[in-house]
Design goal:
Helices cover 48% and strands 15% of the residues. It has 582 residues and is of the alpha+beta class. Helix 16 runs parallel beside helix 18. The chain is elongated, with a radius of gyration of 27 Å. It starts with 9 loop residues before the first strand and ends with a helix.
């Protein structure tokens, strides 16, 4: 009855079809590698993408300091160059600390000490370096000409491959005039990764129209049931740099939203705040009333999914697909919503479509594996997890999920190896620690299991599953009161956690408190009426209380639902009283 948690249903929320990343040259010391260009962009971008890529390569720099990020050359005065970047890229650097700035020729330049300056209250900063080499600087574009659905290009240096410039095509989702916290008024659907913050946003002419700031990030619910990317990217328009360059105060306007773009930008800003799903729904609904857009439906679907309004999310994802019928990410996310309804075959169909549209979609492979796992097709699930890892060897979630499938196949050593790898890649992966604890318990290493549960709780004190599992492990040691205390904590964190009620009921059964066990099992079944483990607990409690006919009904139902412990019990001499009952 130990509860395990796979890291489930990663959602990629880029809004339109995109091509493969364009890798533009390697920056290693003072050497420059041959440029590798891979173009698979949508036809609308074909005319300009190569020329814009060349500009991006020339003007984008890599910044290596307390935080790695990207920047853009915006000004030259003699041998002195000014770099524009995101404030959060350089804000962690202490005075006097060295910062390396790598230009397109591979050369490293040292930061001019004291030159870092934030631009007012927005997420932009400038810094300087000196060099006798000649470098191209950005041509500043007209932000007012940037409209929704127009092509936009983002470039920067990813953390996992920092020597190659990553270049992605996409479209503008919104260019708001309403003031947004830290200036994040520009929304776009390009695929971005960590390390690209501070990178360029270019229009079709290769002009600088903004700075990439906040990319899609993975968000994991405390229950572990969901890993989603939070939506479209956010950038700061070049307007604020223009104000700084002219000597004017750099402040965010306090005006009122009036356009669809304004409402979408406000919705995106609200999305990052916990518990603001209804606000996101309200703002996106206002935006959609003014203009139908894939971005609007996408953001609203995300909020509905967070609220577990799966039907509403599916409806909005379907609307987004009417606008962008070849968007792999929308199929992936609609699959997540279908999974939430228990429609695993429908989810698999959507994930498969996402993979057809984008064969490198690691998230879709992982999610499809997750749905196959829930259908108990463990080998097929492992095959999909393998593919996700082949595409992205740094994908800790897929290692964790593959570990759970191996555990179900009783390949405990293989499971532990996968959990170890997930933890190596992500030392804060609470569920990998919790899951490793389960496998250690299966191997009889109860103390090792408790140590892993302790670590999972240390990382995430709201991890109800880890409390539940630790309670069960403590019950193995006979520490029943401590075990019940852990189950109580799990229920306090998540009052709808059926498994924790069942665990507490089972521990009470072990103590001989059969009425208490029956009461907890009833609570669990009110939440999850088809859980075989809980039916087993209730059946055994009823049997202990002399309610044999009702008990046998529960046990036979648990067996029919596939709960192996009950099936083995009914086939044993101990369970003959029920198996022989008519």
């Amino acid at each position: 009855m130990t509860r395990r948690r796979r890291t489930a249903l990663a959602a990629a929320l880029s809004l339109l079809p995109i091509g493969q990343p364009l890798l533009l040259g390697t920056l290693t010391g003072t050497t420059t590698a041959t440029t590798a260009v891979i173009l698979q962009a949508a036809p609308v971008f074909a005319q300009d993408v190569s020329a814009v890529a060349r500009i991006a390569k020339a003007i984008t720099v890599r910044i290596e300091g307390a935080t790695q990020g990207s920047g853009v050359l915006v000004k030259q005065e003699g041998n002195r160059y000014t770099v524009l970047t995101a404030w959060h890229v350089v804000s962690g650097n202490r005075p006097g600390e060295e910062v390396g700035i790598y230009t397109s020729d591979g050369n490293e330049h040292q930061l001019e000490q004291g030159s870092i300056q934030r631009l007012g209250e927005v997420d932009m900063a400038v810094l300087s370096f000196s060099s006798g080499s000649a470098y191209e600087v950005a041509n500043v574009g007209d932000i007012k000409k940037v409209k929704h659905d127009q092509p936009i290009y983002v470039a920067g240096f990813p953390l996992n491959n920092s020597q190659n410039l990553r270049y992605e095509t996409g479209e503008v989702v919104a260019n708001a005039e309403v003031g947004i916290d830290q200036g994040y008024q520009l929304l776009y659907d390009n695929t971005t990764v960590a390390g690209m913050s501070g990178g360029v946003l270019l229009n079709s002419d290769g002009d600088l129209v903004g700075l990439h700031g906040r990319g899609e990030r993975d968000e994991q619910a405390s229950s572990g049931e969901l890993v989603m990317k939070t939506g479209v990217n956010q950038g700061v328009p070049i307007t604020y740099y223009n104000l700084f360059a002219s000597g004017a105060p750099v402040v965010v306007a306090k005006n009122t939203a009036t356009t669809a773009d304004d409402y979408l930008a406000q919705a995106k800003a609200s999305q990052s705040r916990k518990g603001r799903e209804q606000t996101v729904i309200k703002l996106t609904t206002q935006a959609l009333a003014l203009r139908s857009s894939g971005g609007g439906y996408f953001l609203r679907a995300y909020a509905k999914k967070k609220l577990k309004d799966y039907q509403g999310a599916i409806a909005d994802y379907s609307k987004a697909l009417e606008i962008n019928p070849e968007d792999a990410n929308t199929f992936n996310n609609r699959g997540n919503a279908k999974h939430g309804l228990g429609d695993y075959q429908g989810a698999i169909s959507d994930y498969t479509k996402a993979i057809e549209l984008d064969p490198q979609h690691a998230l879709a492979y992982d999610n499809r594996g997750y749905s196959k796992h829930d259908l108990k097709d463990y080998q097929a699930a492992i095959a999909d997890y393998n593919k996700a890892i082949e595409i992205d060897p740094q994908y800790a979630i897929a290692y964790n999920n593959r570990g759970t499938a191996k555990d179900d196949l009783k390949d405990y050593q293989g499971a532990i190896a996968d959990y170890n790898k997930a933890i190596e890649l992500d030392p804060q992966h609470a569920f990998a620690f919790s899951n490793r604890g389960i496998t250690k318990r299966n191997l009889g290493d109860t103390q090792g299991a408790i140590a892993d549960y302790n670590k999972a709780i240390e990382i995430n004190p709201q991890n109800a599953i880890a409390y539940n599992n630790r309670g069960l492990a403590k019950s193995n040691l006979g520490s029943y009161q401590e075990a019940i205390a852990d189950c109580n904590k799990a229920i306090q964190i998540d009052p709808q956690y059926a498994g924790a009620y069942n665990s507490r009921g089972w521990i009470k059964y072990l103590q001989g408190d059969f009425q208490g066990a029956l009461k907890d099992a009833n609570k669990a079944l009110a939440i999850a009426p088809n859980d075989g483990a809980t039916l087993d607990t209730r059946g055994l409690a009823k049997h202990a209380l002399g309610q044999d006919r009702s008990a046998c009904k529960d046990l036979k139902r648990a067996s029919s639902l596939g709960y192996q412990g009950t099936s083995q019990y009914l086939q044993s001499e101990e369970g003959a009283w029920c198996s022989n009952m008519r």
